[in-house]
Amino acid sequence: MTVFWLRPPMIQIGLPANARVAGWSTHNLDHVTLRHRHHSKAAGLLGLGLATLLLAGCTLPGSSSKSAPPPPSTGSTTPTDTASPAPGGASGSTSGSPTFTVFNVPTANASPGEITTGPDGNLWFLEDDNKVGKVTPGGTVTEYNIPTAASSPAEITAGPDGNVWFTEGDGNKIGQITPAGVIKEFTVPTDSSSPADIVSGPDGNLWFTENDGNKIGRITPTGSIKEFTVPTAQGDPSDITVGPDGNLWFTEDVGKLGSITPTGVIQEYALPDAANSIAGLTIGPDHNLWFTEDTADKVVRAPLGAGVPGPAQTTTAPTPTASAGPSTMPSTSATASTKPSATAQP
Predict the structure, then answer these.
(1) What whole-number distance in Å separates Cα of residue 168 and Cα of residue 22?
(2) Which of 33, 45, 328 is closest to 209 using CA atoms?
(3) What is the pLDDT of residues 298-327, one digit of tens each?
(4) So what's the pLDDT on residue 266?
(5) Which of 165, 181, 243, 268 is the most exposed, fewest CB within 10 Å of its CB?
(6) CA dihedral of residues 49, 242, 33, 318 (deg, nearest 10)
(7) Closest CA to 114 of 182, 164, 61, 148
(8) Cα–Cα distance, 221 to 202 (Å, whole number)
């Protein structure tokens, strides 16, 4: 397996802190522990570092098929540089195009997936073969075994405590790994909850969704977990991100958006068409919520108006290509009002 490094010109996106990029959501891409298990995705999940773009999960001709020694293991730092084609696939000069530098993951068929920039300045990623990987800016790759067998690691994020945190969909645990590679696991109280997405919250804790448990979880840096039930039965919460209003925002598979305050008060907002499926969620540079509806081929903006506890309206833009499964592409079209329902929990 290989990891690609995209050298300058670098790709950067001007989003607020803690914003998540929805363009390559795990809703559409294949991972053993999908947030939406009824979907599949192709290997090759796109992750964004803070400064450079890494492409993980691509197998190149000539990749090793031999098994690696037991982790932690360190891969070769000898890179392979590959110039990208001219824009649009046209022939001619590639002047100004980025160069991909490829680093092998030591374990064959590791299927590296989600990736994030760690507080230690390295990149951390998950492997379908039940490992957490670390790659330095220089390209040295190290792998660490997750203690729980067949845990199906799903999502990963940098924590507020200087460590990296990840969810285990089948292990029903939240994992923490230190920069030195020491892993701790914390069991989610609800059985078979399928922890999915995870993000660092504005309150110094980490927040995660429980796709099958129908709850939003909060875990402190010391490992104390509290759960909050989503009011709608079988809402299947999936993506979660930090909003500019200081709350956490999440998607539900039943055509709703949800918000939860750091104290656990949940509000839900119905989409104009509840039958549509939300694929990804992020906060735009305009401080509004943006999400994609992959089954409807639409991109939706939900403004967070001043003094309004949630979206005052949703603006839907159809994508030009049918069955596109869209990413984020701001535009405008019809408007529909939404009304919240609030549930406070101790």
Answers:
(1) 21
(2) 33
(3) 888 888 754 444 554 445 445 455 555 544
(4) 97
(5) 181
(6) -90
(7) 164
(8) 13
* Of 134, 198, 205, nearest in space to 166 by CA: 198
Q: Is 279 within 8 Å of 291 (Cβ atoms)?
A: yes
Check if the beta carbon of residue 202 is closer than 8 Å to that of residue 182. no
Q: How far apart are CA 297 and CA 320, in angstroms?
A: 8
Q: What are residue 316's DSSP bridge partners?
A: 300
Sole residue written with tokens 């008060």: 265
Token pair recorded at residue 220: 């402190």
Residue 87 token pair: 């824009």
Structure tokens at 249: 């925002």
Which residues are CB-neighbours of 180 under 8 A, at least 6 positions away? Answer: none
Enter the pTM of the model.
0.69
pLDDT attached to residue 294: 78
Buried-exposed string 217-229: b where 16+ CB fall within 10 A, e elsewhere: bbbebeeebebbb
3-state helix, strand, coil in the chain (%, to 5): 0, 40, 60
- Look up residue 265 and give its two tokens: 């008060």
Query: Rounded CA gap, 216 and 266, in Å?
Result: 9
Low-confidence ranges of the chain (pLDDT < 50): 5-71, 76-78, 80-93, 306-309, 312-314, 316-317, 319, 326-344, 346
